[in-house]
Amino acid sequence: MFHGSMVALLTPMKENGDVDHLCLLKQVDWHLEQKTIVVMGTTGEAATLTLDEQDRIIEAVVERVNHRIPVIAGTGSNSTRHAIERTKKAMKIGVNACLLVTPYYNCPTQEGLYRHYCSIAEDVAIPQILYNVPKRTGCDILPETVERLAQFANIVGIKEGRVEQAREIIQRCGHRMDVYSGDDSSALEIMRLGGKGVVSVAANLMPKTMHVFCQWVKKAYESRDDASLWAKAEVLDGELQPIYKQLFVETNPIPVKWLASELGLMASPTLRLPLTTLSVAQQEQLKSVLDCLRSTNFTERLL
Fold first, then answer.
1. pLDDT higher than 80, residue 264
2. Average pLDDT, whole number, for the chain?
3. Number of neighbouring beta carbons within 10 Å of residue 55
């Protein structure tokens, strides 16, 4: 249903920590050509935004997009009732799908996870994408539980960054559920297995490159015997891997927000506590990435 590069949209903030709505709309305009926007995810700092702020951001993005591309909103919670309420609200605002993180902190069993997602799917008709990120949540939804959830027509996909986990989900669920890489660095391998795209942090900085990369991998997968297409995609992936690595020298979205600010994509690299601005030492390390991204022929050279 949703394919290719899907930008995990940053939430720009003013130096006092307020959401910079003008900059937010400029970001949306920049990403309109790249097909899909994911708002209020981890990269968008949803965890430190109030519910009112989240609603205002989702409303602003949906209004600005105006049905031109899909908008997916993060509405997950560690409370099933709260997740249902947030998902209903996002559907009312007009998003195309909701991204539902596994319940954090509670550490539910696999049966608890199954019932959590069942309840949301049964109560809210909107397309839903499961979001598995155990290193942040302390909770891991296993492939056999995902397979049980594939019976729901409105659970359309899962965001999963680990290749082996993605492989098993694809084997178990086939065409009943799309799999998306939750990590730029694993996008090629997951799409090689049949994954449909990537929820991308890097796309905040190079949306055209990530869009074209996913298109190349898709064509290579559909033309399995065309070694030249795979070679082309693999070369581009090799060029991008060092950048992906640098985007996680500190907790996401600290590095990507600093780079976006340095590139003039937002006025300030401000984050909300407990996240802090990129350390001076890491700023020095990221200057090589900055030079690459500032290069006028960066995208053209890669593509």
1. yes
2. 94
3. 18
Beta strands in 30-79 (DSSP E): 36-39, 71-74
Largest separation between any pair of C-alpha atoms in the chain: 54
> Is the pTM for the entire model greater than 0.85?
yes
Name the pLDDT band for 151 (thresholds 50, 70, 90).
very high
State the residue for tokens 């700023």.
Answer: 283
With a CB cutoff of 8 Å and minimum separation 6, the contacts of 104 are 78, 136, 137, 138, 139
131 is catalytic: yes
**Rounded CA separation 200/184 (Å):** 6
Q: Report the alpha-carbon distance of residue 295 to residue 229 in Å, rounded.
A: 26
As beta bridge partners, residue 27 has: none
Copy the structure tokens of residue 229: 């297409």
Catalytic residue among 89, 159, 196, 257: 159
Is the Cβ–Cβ distance between 208 and 253 less than 8 Å? no
Q: How far apart are CA 146 and CA 132, in angstroms?
A: 10
Residue identified by tokens 């996240």 is 275
pLDDT of residue 193: 95
Per DSSP, 34 falls in state: G
Residue pair 104/132 in contact by the 8 Å Cβ criterion = no
Q: If you search the block for the tokens 């990590």, which residue do you land on?
A: 183
pLDDT in tens, 71-119: 999 999 999 999 999 999 999 999 999 999 999 999 999 999 999 999 9
Burial profile 247-270: b = 16 or more Cβ within 10 angstroms, e = fewer: bbbbebbbbbbbbbbbeebbebbb
Q: Which of 131, 196, 218, 257 is catalytic?
A: 131
